[in-house]
């Protein structure tokens, strides 16, 4: 079926746009001589892993389940980081991992012997204490009091001698100039230790596939680090993998008038695109404009009982009517990996749109998916 025929609500992954992003990331891999990994926390639609694995070197995971998914469905290298690992999980994590990064000296020493026995490459996350995200403390691993990574005052040559690599992750939807600024601080503080290790993982948050991203700067910085310290470099973007490669299709169920006309949709911010409320941000809407920019302005909301389940205010050139379809864009990342069934709202189906515009159903969800999570 074509996009306009897909039952709503539904997430639709645009395969052509996905592959366009992958080709850019593959260029980085080739020209910089690094390895690019898919951060599954942002995008885990494993139906597309056969395509992604043609371009990237492996996956990163935030725990056991993502590590298993990467091993079972993607192949390549599997890297795992978590703030802490449960003793009951660590053996299973090691069975499916190639690299494991610890967040603290305590966690490292607690699990080191098992890692070595399993032949796992071991890393330690460092915190350069250099913020580049302005006021967005919610997404700043270098904010004061951050629980992520070991600061310089807690690092010693003996501690670094226990690991194969170092890891930092400080960016969020940022350009290469922020990485360059961060690398300067990392080198000033931890440069001596970089000569001791075999690899450096620069984490995620690199908005590589965004229009205007400074690709040449990213490549040159990675090459410089490789040559200066004679080590292997990894980056693990999540958002860049599927940036602008997905849509959320929804239908207008009703229009409520109370000072402003509110469209009641069968898609929900809190259930189907929670970052709209958590970040917060206003998602791009096809044929939608800023409030007041066009003749007809509406508030877009959902069919839940949460008063604040509001997506935002948009204007349109023509009046919107009940039964009309709307398409939110850039809905491949941090959407279905975070969605939920609050209020008994159903999960959107998953579709893959081929290059010719045909949409193929990957999976549909129903009542049993809601009920099965509760008992």
TrEMBL record:
Its cofactor is pyridoxal 5'-phosphate. CDD domains: PLPDE_III_CANSDC. One of its GO terms (biological process) is spermidine biosynthetic process. GO terms for molecular function: diaminopimelate decarboxylase activity. The keyword Lyase applies. Substrate binds at residues 239, 275. Keywords: Decarboxylase, Lyase, Pyridoxal phosphate, Spermidine biosynthesis. The keyword Lyase applies. Residues 103-331 form the Orn/DAP/Arg decarboxylase 2 C-terminal domain. It comes from the Bacteria. This is Carboxynorspermidine decarboxylase.
């Amino acid at each position: 079926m074509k996009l306009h025929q897909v039952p709503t609500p539904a997430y639709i992954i645009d395969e052509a746009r996905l592959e366009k992003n992958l080709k850019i990331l593959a260029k980085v891999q080739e020209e910089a001589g690094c390895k690019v990994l898919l951060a599954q926390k942002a995008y885990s639609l494993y139906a597309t892993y056969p395509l992604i694995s043609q371009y990237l070197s492996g996956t990163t995971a935030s725990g056991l389940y993502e590590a298993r998914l990467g091993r079972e469905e993607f192949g390549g290298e599997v890297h795992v980081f978590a703030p802490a690992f449960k003793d009951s999980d660590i053996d299973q994590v090691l069975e499916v991992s190639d690299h494991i990064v610890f967040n603290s000296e305590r966690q490292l020493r607690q699990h080191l012997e098992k890692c070595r026995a399993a032949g796992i490459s071991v890393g330690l996350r460092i915190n350069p204490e250099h913020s580049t995200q302005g006021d967005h403390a919610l997404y700043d691993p270098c904010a004061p009091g951050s629980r992520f990574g070991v600061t310089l005052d807690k690092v010693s040559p003996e501690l670094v001698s226990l690991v194969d690599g170092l890891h930092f992750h400080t960016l969020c939807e940022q350009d290469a100039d922020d990485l360059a600024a961060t690398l300067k601080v990392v080198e000033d503080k931890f440069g001596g230790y970089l000569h001791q290790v075999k690899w450096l993982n620069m984490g995620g948050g690199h908005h590589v596939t965004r229009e205007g991203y400074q690709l040449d700067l990213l490549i040159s910085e990675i090459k410089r680090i490789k040559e200066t310290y004679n080590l292997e470099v990894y980056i693990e973007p999540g958002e860049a993998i599927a940036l602008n490669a997905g849509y959320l299709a929804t239908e207008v169920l009703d229009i409520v008038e109370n000072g402003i006309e509110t469209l009641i949709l069968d898609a929900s911010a809190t259930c189907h695109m929670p970052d709209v409320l958590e970040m917060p941000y206003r998602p791009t809407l096809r044929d939608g404009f800023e409030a007041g920019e066009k003749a007809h302005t509406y508030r877009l909301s959902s069919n839940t009982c949460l008063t604040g389940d509001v997506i935002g205010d948009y204007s349109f050139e023509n009046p919107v009517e009940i039964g009309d379809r709307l398409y939110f864009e850039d809905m491949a990342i941090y959407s279905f990996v975070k969605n939920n069934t609050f209020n008994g709202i159903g999960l959107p189906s998953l579709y893959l749109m081929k290059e010719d515009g045909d949409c193929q159903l990957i999976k549909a969800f129903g009542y049993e998916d809601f009920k099965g999570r509760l008992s």
